[in-house]
Amino acid sequence: MIFLTTVVSYFNIEVEENDQEKLIEAMTYVRDVRLSQDRIDNLFVPLKGIIGLLKTFKISMPDETIELLEMIPFNWEDTNKVTLNARESLGPLQSLQQEKVREKTENFKSVIQEFCSLFHEEAPFQFEVGHENAYNKINSYHIHISALEQEALEVGASQELFELAVTPWRSIKECRVELGYLKLAWDHVQLVSDIFQSFRNTLWSAVDVEAMTDQTKKLQKEVKMLNKAVHKWDVHAGLTSLVAAMSVSLPLVNDLRDEAMRNRHWSQLMSVCGKTFVMDEKLQLDALLRLELDKFQDSVSEIVERARAEIKIDLQLQKIITTWSGLALFYQPFKATGVQILIHRSCSCRLLRCRHRGHPDRPIPPKKLLEGQPRRAPFEGSHRRSHQGDPPNPTSR
What we know:
Layout: H1 2-10, H2 20-41, H3 44-56, H4 63-89, H5 91-122, H6 131-161, H7 170-200, H8 209-224, H9 228-231, H10 234-256, H11 263-273, H12 285-289, H13 297-325, E1 331-333, E2 340-342, H14 348-356, H15 366-370, H16 380-387
Antiparallel strand pairs: 1-2
């Protein structure tokens, strides 16, 4: 009832042509009446029902209240008539103000277009910007877009007030959505960078490749689950490349931790990658990752395989050295010529022969080797036969 009384009393005041403040206030009442039309009209039928229900149950009410409730529909009808007359009288002033609102709308539209163009050119869509500069730009654009959104609300309110079509300003909304996705992408860049930095700071002796690989796989899944709108930006491509490089490098790091790796192999690795580092107790994983192992995957694998093959050869050589270190070779002059010849004074020959025939890891006890062996010098029998007239062997020279 207060609203109806206020509207009727205000429209009794004449609005001058140059009084924009009163014109806006008057148009505000016109708008409020127009927007309240359906809501208030739907109240009268339930209101009559309530009054009838109270009378049915003989619930008494003050006469003034009953009279007021009965008069509300008539007062509302009078308010609509007064508003309609006021709207007609304000028509010329409303038309002038509509032109001003249209002009303001066109100017604001130019501002929006310029901002959107600048946003798509200078916003941190490039991965090379870095997360610190990216966050600074995102904060700046957030403030700018918030100001534009507030101005858009004011323009929209003026358009509604003077019965003009309200512009939706989709460009601002799109920039706001893109800015949100952009921040989400850089949040993932920051997250991945922090986790990978913790990997890099790990001492070489404490590297847990399996745990790091599991963490990298989880990050890879999260990056893939980002909104499709983010996938077309360079920041997403750089983030994907960063995670992919780590996923390729970690298996190579695991290979390089092989016990077969020696100083010569580390030197070969530095030569292939073109970078150097100091192999000591303070070595961190960062030194290996700085080599960009993912770019030399085949060469790194080749070095590790070579190291593994060489360690097998080293083990065999060590066995040979161990075998020969326990052997003693004895010589004596041959009876006829005086030439120094090898003799069976120990089990050396039989031990070497046994190992040569496929039993390198099965040493034969000396007693077994000496059982049944003649105690004469080698070539002694052939020497005797040659003195007894046997023809010499032409191939023995």
